[in-house]
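Researcher: We're reviewing a set of sequences before deciding which ones to prioritize for further study. For each one, I'd like a predicted 3D structure that I can look through quickly. This is Hydrolase. If possible, include the structure in token form so it fits the rest of the review sheet.
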Amino acid sequence: MRRRRWPRVLAAVLVLVVVAAVGGYWYARPLLRTGTGYAAHNACALAFVAERSNPGTDLPPNPLVPYLSTSVDDDAKRARTSIKGLLAGQEAAWSPETGCTVGGAPEVATPGPAPAAGGTNPFTTASSTDDPEVARLIAAAFGDELGDVERERLGTRGVVVVRDGAIVGERYADGFTQDTPQLGWSMTKSVTNLLTGRLVLEGAVRLTDDHLRPEWKDDRAKITVDQLLRMTGGLAWDETYDLGTPITQMLYGERDMAGYVASQELAHAPGTHQQYSSGSTTLLCSVLGARAKATSRLAAAQVFAPLGLRSAVLETDGVGTPVCSSYLWATPRDWAALAQLALQDGVWGGQRLLPEGWMAASTKVTPVPSSEEKGYAAGWWSNTDADGSLVEPTLTPDTYSMQGHDGQRVYVVPSKRLVVVRLGFSPEMSGEDPAVVPLVAALSR
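Model: Here's the predicted structure for Hydrolase, in token form for your review sheet.
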């Protein structure tokens, strides 16, 4: 009789194992889908926006990466990633105007009018002058004197130096050219500042506007446009790039990213605490789109076309809202043009595109009772903090910058009429300077 029980015991154990495995998978599924969503978007964008064929080179070190299976459908313009071809599958789809969107092409209700023929980007066809000293400094930014391992860790892919409105130095890594669009990640936030300035100039938006979401009936209604720009809105957030955090859930698990951000509760009274939040900028773009009665084409019409940027693609979420926190692709020369517009206080080709004094105000850090950041202003990083101290002592007080994930940097030094663009892939240098501050400091002397 005892022996006859064993099959039933084994069957029961097997059932428990299966139940535990299934339960464990469903518990971990949202975390896994963050990873597969990241990889699917990465593969889609590299294939169809950057027109590169090596998506694995842009995946950061993560224990999940060896288990990812990715396929790219060139005809359907889609990429799909899953765990070993079976679990937690996610796909991203490409469209010409909106780039790649996780979960399929966006449903755009109000794309807005197509951008009219606009200005000219003089950097598009400009020749770079051959300045040996600038070339030497750029070589250091590429890690020419480092060993192979350290040079790969540094990961510099493109550097452009502009002085007095002319390119005086430029270099690209193997496989990259001046025509290769590269992802700016959080440098997109600085471009969102320019977009906001355009709409302020046109009278569509005011920095003091509040009651930004119809569903906000509590103190969230007090949050202003300026507070979203400066990340002092007070919404609960966690910017840690890890599986299952709000930032990765927003980017890889939500079709309506702004709606997800708007659903967060207040952690601080608006205007009292500064916390870095990609959610704030994404939410801001939904507000700008609503006020301007346009969504996916807004940045193209208001910023890219007037500057003559041919490569710029600002990707959207599943409802057509631009992901203004993270997803602007552009060539290094187009990134330089965006910075040059800032350097010129919003004047381009003799036309004023931003309110006079916009950049001085946007790069001035506003004091708040408490802050987790040092030098963050209105979408730009300032080298002069609210108390007057320098964030980076080797740089001039008037220096300000765009900064993005994996080592993306664009520095503007108005007193030296200088713009420095550095793009790359440096995931192992989080919290470290990717050899660009010494470059900017030397060029600023």
